[in-house]
Amino acid sequence: MKHVEMSRQRHAGWLKSARTCLICLVCALAGLHPAFADNRVLYASSDNWPPFFMEDEGKISGIGYDILTEVARRTGDTIHISRLPNKRALKLFDEGMIDIIVIDAALWNDPKNIPGMTFSDDLMSVNEYVYFNAEHVISMKTPADLAGKTVGILNGYSYPLFEEAFRTGQVKKVEAYREQSLLEMLRHQRVDAIFMDSVAFDFNTRRFAYDQALFKRGTQLSEAALGIKVRRGKADILPRFNKAIAQMKADGTISRIVRQYTQ
C-alpha cells in the first residue's frame, strides 16, 4: 500500500508540474506573466509627429516616446512601442489590438469615439499660435483681420476659429506636410502667416537653425492638454500610470524631456 501511495503522490506531483508548465507555456505565447501580472504587457503606437514621436532608421525618439518609456520603467510595465500610420494605429486601437496611443489630446478626438477611450492625467499642454514674418507683422484679433491673406497650415490640421473664413475663401490656406516647409514659406513671405504650436516651433527652429528673431508670435489659437490615450478596456493601468506621471512632474523629469527637444 505504501508503494501505491507513493506512486499516487508522484503521479499527482507530475500532473501539478505538467499543469504549471502548460500554464507557463500558454502565458508565454500570450505574452503574459504566469500570474498575469496585472496586465503589464501593453502595445502602443503613434504616427510620426515631431517632436512628440519620431522614427528615423528604425530608432524611435520624441517627447511622448521618452515620457511613456519612463512611465513604464517606473511602473514595471513592458510596453512594445511601434510607429504606424495614424489611420492604421487608430483602427487597431478601436479593434483592441493596440492598448495605447503614445500621446494625444482629448480635445482633438471625435466625441462619438470618447466612450471607447480614456486618458492619463495631463502630461503637458500644447498651445497653437499665429506666427508672422518679423518684417511683416499683422495686427490680428479675429479671422477678419487676415481677410485677403494667405495662411500656411499643416496638412490635415483643422482650426475651428478659421473654419468659416477658410470655407468662404475670406482667408486662403496653403497646406504643407512639414513644419520646416511652413517656416520656409513664412521666412520668404510666400504666405502672410502660419499656424503652429509653440513646441513644434521651438523644436523646428532649433533643428533647422532658424533664428527665432525672424518670426513674431501673434494670437493664440488653441490650448490642448496632452496625455497618454488608453483603450477603455485597459483603464486599470491608469492608477499606476498617473502615480508615475505625478512623480515625473514633481521631480522635473517631464520638463527635462521637453527641454531636450526644444532648447
Average pLDDT taken over every residue: 88
Number of domains: 2
Write down the oligomeric state.
single chain
* Morphology: globular
Care to count the β-strands? 11
What is the N-to-C order of secondary-structure elements (H for helix, E for strand)?
HEEEHEHEEEEHEHEHEHH
CATH homolog superfamily of the largest domain: Periplasmic binding protein-like II
CATH class of the largest domain reads: Alpha Beta
Helix content: 25-40%
Strand content: 25-35%
| Cα-based radius of gyration, to the nearest Å | 25 Å
Given the helix and strand composition, which structural class is it? alpha/beta
Number of helices in the DSSP assignment: 8
CATH topology of the largest domain: D-Maltodextrin-Binding Protein, domain 2
Unreliable stretches (pLDDT < 50, length at least 5) are 1-37
Instruction: Characterize the main sheet.
Output: 9 strands, mixed
Distance between the termini: 80 Å
CATH architecture of the largest domain: 3-Layer(aba) Sandwich
